[in-house]
Amino acid sequence: MVASSAGETRPLRADARRNRERILGAAGAVFAEHGPAASTEQVAERAGVAIGTVFRHFPTKRDLLQAIMKDLLARLTAEATALAADGDPATALFTFFARLVEQSANQKTVIESLTETGTDLPMAGAVGPFRDQIATLLERAQAAGAVRPGVRTDEVMALLAAQCQGALHGGWDADLRGRTLAIVFAGLRHP
Amino acid sequence: MVASSAGETRPLRADARRNRERILGAAGAVFAEHGPAASTEQVAERAGVAIGTVFRHFPTKRDLLQAIMKDLLARLTAEATALAADGDPATALFTFFARLVEQSANQKTVIESLTETGTDLPMAGAVGPFRDQIATLLERAQAAGAVRPGVRTDEVMALLAAQCQGALHGGWDADLRGRTLAIVFAGLRHP
Amino acid sequence: MVASSAGETRPLRADARRNRERILGAAGAVFAEHGPAASTEQVAERAGVAIGTVFRHFPTKRDLLQAIMKDLLARLTAEATALAADGDPATALFTFFARLVEQSANQKTVIESLTETGTDLPMAGAVGPFRDQIATLLERAQAAGAVRPGVRTDEVMALLAAQCQGALHGGWDADLRGRTLAIVFAGLRHP
Amino acid sequence: MVASSAGETRPLRADARRNRERILGAAGAVFAEHGPAASTEQVAERAGVAIGTVFRHFPTKRDLLQAIMKDLLARLTAEATALAADGDPATALFTFFARLVEQSANQKTVIESLTETGTDLPMAGAVGPFRDQIATLLERAQAAGAVRPGVRTDEVMALLAAQCQGALHGGWDADLRGRTLAIVFAGLRHP
DNA sequence: GATGAATGAGAGTTCATTCAT
DNA sequence: AATGAATGAACTCTCATTCAT
């Protein structure tokens, strides 16, 4: 009987937290490689735990998927925040955009996290902060004259998601990614 | 009699050909609606045939998916060809591009057909002719000064695919689709 | 100190005994409500202890079920004893019978405790004392002329169990319970 | 069972019907022996079919249980009808009652079928006809003076269910069954 | 050729039980 | 003694695929 502070998540036992992380890691890798249709058992195996352990941490496959995406979004948001803090306003947005597309060439889950609408996984507004950072990057780029004033955050998010999905499912190589991005960036710049 | 791409396809019995078509139609609809995870039995039911019949025509679910995409690509190619024949060179590419993105907002299979690489479904080069038409549209647009010279077919294909996937999985509404396309089009126009 | 049925039970630590009781109470409630298929974890939660504690006290779910029934039987025996001591000989049996049936309309475990044979849970003869009290009630009722001489304890036990199970699984309302009992009581009275 | 006279069940293929019957038979046996908690796989094995076949015929375990009980009830109803047709009015009810209790000493499912309320398996009123036959038997017995006028069908049904459950879960032997029934019958006869 | 019943390998999920903390 | 995380067998159910009719 642990006095559970009326809060939400009570501090997990050391081993539990370690496992939780291993599972998240494994799930990230497995789903990135085989898509969300990959089996939970694969995740368990990769994490080196029994299947029951996965389900103890994430009562449903859905929950696992959700957790993974939240996690990913949080990391991306941090990255964007960092860029907003000390990147060159004129290029930060482009840099981030390109970097993200780069990543998703290897991830099968990235994109879905960018589209709260697209998935039916409610992730408790974890997209919000991310979107906010994109908005910041956008404003700065516009202030620096690097992006046409009319462009809105919506479109940037949409283009980001589309490029990522394209890069992923299309299997674009680095060169093609670069040239495609160049076009999109030009579009953001000119009327 | 019928031009058959591969070796020994014998002329099908009339009812067999009719069934083949009904299955393809049903599969198109079903997979468009529920994604490729939809069950083959649903397809059979929608086509009004028994499950065995589906498997006689397409020995594998994979084969069915493949056939569907070939079919779709053929239709798209025809559309592009028509535009190349009598559309305005300056706008035909854009028109086609926009039309396709529009469609995929409702289709769940379209995009995958655009990326022979992305899918693991080899479709015997059915992408070739499609790509050729896109190339034609592109050249004309460039000749008409509507697209910057440096742009290659590759990028156009890639952007097309990306936009379609975005439109589909992102659930973009008509407005967002329009604004996103505007940016991409501007990118194609300006250096 | 405590009268313990089996061999070498050492006097439990105070908190241990308290826990044991809380578990028994919780188990009684949970199994009464959801039947024996309810999960042990539910019991633990209701008792406010960890699952490990439940298994420390009752190494097996079976053991827990068993203990619960012994417990219940003991309570019933006490009740019967009280009635035998100061109830009206002519009606005490009937009163007790009716009361028990009444209870089992709300309990999902009661009945099984009445049938040592029926369950595969050996309960170390805890039925014995209970049965003895029923026998007493019966003898008195017969002495008072309220029950036909030929009736034996066996049948009374059997009828009791049957009525309880009927009341429980059949979902009889108070009225039906009354009328059904009336018939059984009449049967006990007349040849 | 019966040639599907009712509703829209289309005539099953010969092998399908054979399997359906084998599954029902197996399920009857398995559930009778181990109770409704027995696994569907056991049923499949006993029926000599693959697990998928069981689920093709009965999409849910629930459905299987339901079917079994409907089946059983139909058989019992037929039996009761026969007795109503050519049995001795004075004894037919008792005969049937006794026979049923006898059976349920070996069946683990019988009883539940008698209590539409008790189970949460809706069986489309299959209890109705059965109940009607019991009512008939009862009326005749009352007309013949073998049962007290005040007794209603409700109570008879309830007693029947209770006795069956008792016989089943209590593991009564033939002798005890006889003596218990004698008491109940006496109760039905006398005020 | 068409039919649709049968197959059986998995998938997600639960839960009694064990054991490190 | 108590805790609660980990285990893994078992269960229900799905679906691509095969094959007797």
UniProtKB/TrEMBL annotation, chains A, B, C, D:
Keyword list, A-Z: DNA-binding, Transcription, Transcription regulation
Domain HTH tetR-type stretches: 17-76
A GO MF label: DNA-binding transcription factor activity
InterPro entries the UniProt entry points to: DNA-bd_HTH_TetR-type_CS (IPR023772), Homeodomain-like_sf (IPR009057), HTH-type_TetR-like_transc_reg (IPR050109), HTH_TetR (IPR001647), Tet_transcr_reg_TetR-rel_C_sf (IPR036271), TetR_SbtR-like_C (IPR049445)
A Pfam family of this chain: TetR_C_43
Location of the DNA-binding region in this protein: 39-58
Protein name, entry field: TetR family transcriptional regulator
